From TrEMBL:
It comes from Pedobacter alluvionis. InterPro entries: FKBP-like_isomerase (IPR051989), PPIase_dom_sf (IPR046357), PPIase_FKBP_dom (IPR001179). Keywords: Isomerase, Repeat, Rotamase, Signal. It catalyses: [protein]-peptidylproline (omega=180) = [protein]-peptidylproline (omega=0). Residues 1-20 form the signal peptide. This is Peptidyl-prolyl cis-trans isomerase. It is an enzyme of class 5 (isomerase). Its EC number is 5.2.1.8. The keyword Isomerase applies. SUPFAM superfamilies: FKBP-like (SSF54534). GO terms for molecular function: peptidyl-prolyl cis-trans isomerase activity. Gene3D superfamilies: 3.10.50.40. Residues 74-174, 219-303 form the PPIase FKBP-type domain. PROSITE patterns: FKBP_PPIASE, PROKAR_LIPOPROTEIN.
Length: 304
């Protein structure tokens, strides 16, 4: 056997050992995760958990309403999500209290980008698989092994090799504006408030009729006092310790513009703005995606 043949044989053997070592490590990770999940199921008496039909390694259970059709990949899904560690119980991700998440079922993986402050798209088919077994309004719980989630690298607050407990709660609406309108009506009924619904879907309540004579136009400079809240009463912004002055055209909240022009200086009123006429799916600093806004406003002066 010449030295070139010996070298080739040695290289082949070395490659075989390395490949076998990697294969063994991968199989071990699967085995360890699967044992951990089975132990978690037993410890928490999750008797309704079942392995996915393709036997890829995740377990799930679903709770569905009696009526409705199952989601399709092309359907919009409005949902909240909670992601916890199966080891420590630490909550890694939680939908915002005053908003909700939404996407197409086929794109369910993309919510990780914003939630984890990453530009990487993580493809986690288990989420879609479970949601495709839901009807709008149903809930899925998914036990996800680390090798089907974020693996040895982890991401954001999620460490490496972490098995995850997902809960995805969907809502019985395919359109955000319908969901918002239902939430606003429920809020008004619970607070015993009588309001007027504008054609734009903003609800408003007049407390004091204005005494000013100048109508508000796009060219007007308007001085306001206001307090902005979420439906749970949390204040996100306020100018009651001073005043806020801007041209009417400079207001960035479309729902505000729809209602303010109905009033004149001296008016005090309240308006509840659906999310698509506020900051929409993108939100802004301090305001989550799909947040409904509740404003108390006083028009101090109008200059044309």
């Amino acid at each position: 056997m010449n030295k070139f043949t010996k070298l080739g044989l040695f290289t082949l053997l070395l490659a075989t050992v390395v490949f076998s070592s990697c294969e063994k490590e991968y199989d071990t990770a699967q085995t360890v995760d699967d044992e951990a999940i089975k132990s978690y199921i037993s410890k928490n008496n999750l008797t309704q958990m079942q392995p996915d039909s393709a036997k890829t390694g995740f377990y799930y259970q679903v709770t569905n309403p009696t009526d409705g059709s199952f989601f399709l990949n092309t359907d919009s899904v409005l949902y909240d999500v909670t992601v916890k560690s199966m080891t420590s119980g630490t909550t890694y991700l939680q939908s915002p209290a005053n908003g909700n998440l939404g996407t197409y079922v086929g794109y369910l993986n993309s919510f990780f980008q914003g939630a984890l402050s990453t530009t990487i798209t993580y493809n986690i088919p288990a989420l879609r698989t479970a949601v495709l077994k839901l009807k709008p309004g149903g809930t899925a719980r998914i036990l996800l092994p680390s090798y089907l989630a974020f693996g040895r690298n982890g991401v954001g607050p999620i460490p490496s090799n972490e098995n995850l407990d997902f809960i995805i709660k969907t809502y019985p609406y395919h359109k955000q504006w319908l969901f918002d309108d239902a939430k606003i009506q429920s809020f008004l009924a619970a607070k015993n408030l009588t309001s007027t619904k504008d054609a734009s879907r903003v609800y408003y309540i007049t407390n004091t009729v204005g005494t000013g004579t100048d109508a508000i136009s796009d060219e007007s400079t308007v001085v306001y006092k206001y307090t902005g809240r979420f439906l749970d009463g949390t204040v996100f912004d306020s100018s009651t310790d001073g005043t806020f002055s801007t041209t009417f055209a400079g207001i960035g909240v479309q729902g505000w513009k729809n209602i303010v022009r109905k009033y004149t200086a001296g008016a005090k009123f309240r308006m509840i703005i659906p999310s698509d006429l506020a900051y929409g799916t993108g939100g802004r600093t301090g305001i989550p995606s799909n947040a409904i806004l509740d404003f108390d406003i006083e028009i101090v002066s109008v200059t044309n």
